[in-house]
Amino acid sequence: MKYDFDKLINRKNTNSLKYDFAIERKRPEDAIPLWVADMDFATLDEVKNALIEKANYGVFGYSEPKERYFNALNNWFKVNHNWDIDTSKVVLACGVVLAIAATIRALTKENDAVLICQPVYYPFEETIKVNNRKLVVSELKNINNHYEVDFNDFEKKIVENDVKLFILCNPHNPVGRVWTREELERIGDICLKHNVFVISDEIHADFTYEGHKHIVFATVKKEFENNCIVCTAPTKTFNLAGLHISNIYIPNDDVRRKYKLEMAKIGYSQSNVMGIIACQAAYESGALWLKELKQYLKSNLDFVRDYINNNLKDIFLIEPEGTYLLWLDCRKLNLSNRELHDFINNKAKVWVDDGYVFGEGGSGFIRINIACPKQTLYKALENIRKVL
Q: Region 288-309: what's the mean pLDDT?
């Protein structure tokens, strides 16, 4: 490989949320962090060099992207996802969660119902509740360690609660599903039938494993396009989360107007200049880096699978189809959520995301992040094996 993903980078004392806030988050200071979804890998040189050039220039005034930025964005999605974006419909934001919150506020009123399929990325629930909307949950079905949408329950919950909005996660965090075209079509048809608008969070789109292909929701059917927004960002793909940049595709003119009005209400206008620069450089030059990264993540997945099968007999890997986040079933340990948390985080000293925070269906599970050098994974798994 051209890129060395085995290299250990000391992230301590860098204001890293992942590494420097264990005590504040009530974890052991020496816990190995496999929790929050950022990577322990340096991004590609072209991104670093573009940021250095801007830093040396020394002027950081208000900035907006020009044509080259949108050409890079369009080319990336055309090549990698067979999606020819009308970039005139793209609105920049400082993050996908902000875009989701703005859309909730733009398209629903207080006490309106918003549907999610748990277990799912926990800021979805938080954003719904903090905006005083009614949370409606359709639990995913775990069938032989493979998660599926319960379409009967999905539609039933929509009808019973007069749901206005559905938040789709694809690829799905934390269970690792990459929804098929047939599944997306069924979701979209039900939502159209009952006038439910779809927010499609596709931030993990670039991470799929062999045999699985990410399909952009807006491309599944022409009639879906006007009934959705698609949330994208380079931040997961190229480890740029701290630069706060995302590209939100809003094809419906009326929805885009309402969305922009919500952004204006909170005083948000221009994006972070460094985020703009990093996004453009990543989409222009990051293909080889991502290709090698995905090969490394596949080897990490293989390593974790083998290690668990050989050493952790009461923990089961839910085989992922996408993302660099693994969903581990620990229910055979027969521990309560509190006991499982204490066992993994405090006794084994591995900082993970507790499964229950993703919803009731996450009880007895943990989520780990494998986007780190293999030796970090080995140490963490060894810690768990020893306390077992």
A: 98
